[in-house]
Please model this.
Amino acid sequence: NAGVMQNPRHLVRRRGQEARLRCSPMKGHSHVYWYRQLPEEGLKFMVYLQKENIIDESGMPKERFSAEFPKEGPSILRIQQVVRGDSAAYFCASSPRSGFGTQYFGPGTRLLVL
Amino acid sequence: KNEVEQSPQNLTAQEGEFITINCSYSVGISALHWLQQHPGGGIVSLFMLSSGKKKHGRLIATINIQEKHSSLHITASHPRDSAVYICAVRPQGGSEKLVFGKGTKLTVNP
Model:
């Protein structure tokens, strides 16, 4: 059973470009979480999704950031018009159920904005 | 003040020593997680606790709900235990999101 997969592992963008980060949850997992780790800071929750639904996006910046988890395919975290402050590690986690389910983390995508 | 505080921030130990990392939180929770982040950046979930104590190999995690405190212990530490250990809580109220501490960087020297 493959773990949570994220791609790309490293992404370099220039200011103003778009960044698309992908997350494939573990097989059988229908809950996906996105977290951001800024340099020298702790992890911060961004968004929680189930298939085709955004359940909690209270940690998402109000502008430029969006997330989806379609019926088919990976979850996507999209950052439009990136700025240098978006440079961070973005982690995805998945769980098989809500409530007390353990979250399994992907390897992360390191985004560098030049 | 952060909702989740860890201590110490940095910890250096000699191989074989007993390690304790502490986590205090200020909100009601439904669960607490201990995570390990390797130098390469990957994150592994070690424990999920809502009460009592759990043990896995040389790792032991305890939680005291009344005191809003958890500890992670490592017995017979080894250089391969060197990593950042992160405490995270799931606040009560049905939220699925985790609130993280800033982590404890552990270095175990041979």
